[in-house]
Amino acid sequence: MPQLDLETISRRFGAVTALDGVSLSLRPGEVHALMGENGAGKSTLIRVLAGLDRPDEGRIMLGGEEIPPGQPAAMREAGLRFIHQELHAVKGLSVAENMHLDHPYPRRAGLVNWGALNAAASEALARLGLETIDPRAPMTDLGPGDQMLVRIASTLIADGDRPAWLYVMDEPTAALTSGESERLFTVIGQLIGQGGGVLYVSHRMPEVLRLADRVTVLRDGRHVSTRPLSETGEARIIEEMTGRDLSALFPPRRSDATPGEVVLRVEQLSAGPLEEATFELRAGEVLGVAGIAGSGRGALLRALVGEQSRSDGTVTLDGRTLNGGPKQAWRGGMAYVPRERRSEGLMLRRAIFENVALPHLSGLARLRYFLDHRRQRRVARDLGGQVQLKAASITQACEELSGGNQQKVLFARALAGAPKVLLLDEPTRGVDIGARSELYRLIRELSDAGLAVVMASSDLPELLGLSDRIAIMRDGRLSEFVEAEGLTEAELLSRFYHLSKEEQAA
Amino acid sequence: MMQVARRFGGVAGMLAVIAFFAINLPETFLTPRNLLNISQQISMLTVVAATMTVVMVMGDFDLSVGSMASLSGVVAAILFTQDWSVPAAVGVALAVGLAGGLFNGIVVSVVGILPFVATLATLTVFSGLAFVVSDGRTIFGRDIPPGFGDFARGGPVIGMADERALVLPNLTLVAIAVVLVIWIVLEQTSYGRRLYAIGGNRDAARLAGIPVVPLRLSAFAFTGVGAALAGLMYASRVASANPTQGDGLMLTAIAAVFLGMTLTRDGQPKVLATLAGVAVLGVLDNGLTQMRVDSYVREVLVGAIILFAVGLSALGRRGAARRR
Where is the ABC transporter domain positioned along the sequence (chain A) (predicted)? Predict the structure, then answer.
């Protein structure tokens, strides 16, 4: 396969220059990482590659021949395939049918040939070592990770086009757990081994450092650098992305911090998959919750906030027992930033200030029942400032914000009730490095000011960089607590599996 | 356990209903003649519900089917009074159904009005047209050619019982043919599978290059033609046509599809499940009538049973979602 060259691509939207003379070469057999903060031009570049956007200047060349711009079919013909961060599983259809969404179904006498359909699907799955996935199973029986792998496998189904060789993956691991991500990385290895190429767009530095052969950094629509991974590294990439030194991604804890009073006491808490969780949390403490996918990290938070109904145990916050649902938990001083900010957190079409005020309406009302819009806006504006929300106005709809700013809206909402305990589930998922560092600084400031934080995360550097203690979960149980100070990623990871081996031996 | 209850609860419920009537009406219920009778009674509902399944697969509705059925009946009848031949009048009535269905499709899919609102409006339009066309009269008697009325009364003889011929009603044959066609379209053609894709995740379908707008538009043609056909069947059966006689079909057809959805594994509309839903409603109606249950009480019972079945299925589904 010849290589694909982007030559001095520019794209302007009115007065805004989204891409300014960006050149890029994508070759078979390598993973090319594309890095940049939100607004750096990554999305526009992907849209140009997909043929969804026509560049104002520049050419896209495949092996020396120009591909007509702005035509999705032409890009597809050139062998490009796009794996989006949002999963697009069609419920009610089988895996094989989902794989044929953009391919014609095999037919016999005008009717669907189910045997050939399933055979084509399982052949494509097998090429990626995914024999365990049954093509006849309903797609929605699969986890999000497997759904994404199925999407990738579907691009291997032969059709009239030239075969797919270049895979553009936009934040592919955003919805995946670490175990699912591992399978994706294996599949990427397979694709590269079979002569494919990957343009890998991600905010997650560890993934880029692990997968990429070359790294291109964009900033403000301009090409900053393209280097082999051996000639660059985390610090340099971050510096190039942000234009500033981010060596202090995780701000240090205030040195004179002393442990506060116990604010949260959890005893023998069982709820859904969570079993017999017992721990205490002090004011100003950050407790990380770690564990492999499915170990119950999210379930612990959902149980604490009362979303998952409890079968046993007590949760005491500031001396008061919480035994109701989320409403009582919020009122009692708990705040929760859920993992799925789009589906569980935000009313995307509503204004920022409405989203911030939502759980606090009764506290912000006039005469108890009448909404006080001015007060809602003031609270939202103050908190927006505190979380460094970047928005045109607090009346802007949340769907217009970047992932990082959407997350800040949820932080502002959580803080509006002046909580004592803040529960965070994957707080920086899909958030770019700049907004991420601001969130880290915010979490640190809040905990320095005495807020207790419980943070479930699959991002190991984040757990190690922010937590005081890390609770490791396994099979729905809190298996051990470790001090974060001095712990390395490898040590933390090994503890995820450590106990299970011991128990197997026993 | 809940899973099992959800999966087979509906089937068990259906068998229970049949067993109940079989025990309470030992002489008359489970006889071949009565079953054939039921099959004829439900044939019009079957046609409307089967074609309704096509749009509900995409998550859409067509509320205008009842008034379309009335309209097509009076259109054919009026043409009969103008001495049109049966095939020509039937052809025109079906063409009216096709046109109405495509109009619904355009309004929903191209213009982008919610199906609920759009077809509620066309329901009123079609109903008004039925009155305009018929001048508000019932057309019956000598105006209806004997060939048209005899069709519904006839059918191939398939056996003898009590020294009388058992007739497989023509209307039943029509309904079977429609179900077969819809089954092939939905389950065995890529067209039908694309409709399921649109219903399962419209964005994904669009991103995969599936032509969502024309497909949605075309699917409404099925409900239009199906409704018109059912209207003709009805007119043939009663050998008359009035501008409101099909109106009751719409809600029952949608209820039948919902009942059917409770039987499928993933809660998708499927035409054979719809047929089961229609059968349950038909059996209930027939059995309760035979037991001389007052027709108003019958409506209360049927409504309650629909609520119960769909509610049970929703609870089961929520339980399943929570365990994920």
Answer: 4-500
